[in-house]
Amino acid sequence: MNASVKIRNVVFGEGIPKICIPLTDTNLDGLRQSVKAMENAPFDFVEWRADFYQNIENPQVRFQAMAYLRELLKEIPVLFTIRTDLEGGKLRLSTEDYTALNLAAIESGLVDLVDVELSRGDDTMKTLVEAAHQAGVKIIASRHDTASTPSKEEIVGHLCEMQQLGADIAKFAVMPRNDRDVLTLLDATLTMREEHQETPVITMSMGRQGAISRICGSVFGSAITFGTAGKASAPGQLPADLLSNFITSLA
């Protein structure tokens, strides 16, 4: 199994894949409703998709949401994510503004992990990795191909690049065009587990066609899967309770 990463009381990269619930609300009232909807759902940590949130560039708006999540979730890890339009998200940002928003989240002391897009370049990754590690925050480096599935070699190459740049966890999400694309993603995942164990990895094939990739991480080596307790943040996400049933039955 890949090297493990411990965040609060959760160990990523050991045991069965951990379930993350994404929060895609646009305001604090919506966030409150989503947190309440999670009460009976099985999950290990949450992802705050800040790119969905209105006026996220406003420091007070941002702080209020992060402080609310930190208070309510207590020892449950919180992942801060700004998914930009370059990788299928909701915000269009310059690299300078993208870096500044992520630095602000890191320095807030209110989040445990920050997602950094590989497409923002090596310098951005290195800057945010250094700042995060100084603050005791972990980095998930990510790459998203929302239109196709690259070759196995390209997927593995990007995941290894993330590891070399200092990420604590490496993530690659793809869109399948056919069934064999799903196999390509799973083959790349297994290769990472067998040959590149420096960090845990997260992989997924999106959409209905790729849904199988979200439940078989324990077989191929993906350490985290994303499930819903309401709204989805990406195509093909399954309800967290259904995911949990699948994952535990495969363990």
What does this structure look like?
The protein is an alpha/beta fold and 251 residues long. It has a single domain (15-250), classed as Aldolase class I (TIM Barrel). The protein has 8 helices and 11 strands. The strands form 2 sheets. Strands 9-8-7-6-5-4-3-10-11 form a 9-stranded parallel β-sheet. Helix 3 (95-108) links the parallel strand 5 (78-81) and strand 6 (113-117). The radius of gyration is 17 Å and the shape is globular. It starts with a strand and ends with a helix. The model has no long low-confidence stretch (mean pLDDT 94).
Topology:
Elements lengths: L4 E3 L2 E3 L5 E6 L4 H10 L7 E5 L9 H15 L4 E4 L13 H14 L4 E5 L4 H14 L2 E8 L6 H13 L4 E6 L4 H17 L5 E5 L11 H4 L3 E5 L9 E2 H11 L1
Parallel strand pairs: 3-4, 3-10, 4-5, 5-6, 6-7, 7-8, 8-9, 10-11
Antiparallel strand pairs: 1-2
Helix pairs in contact: 3-4, 5-6
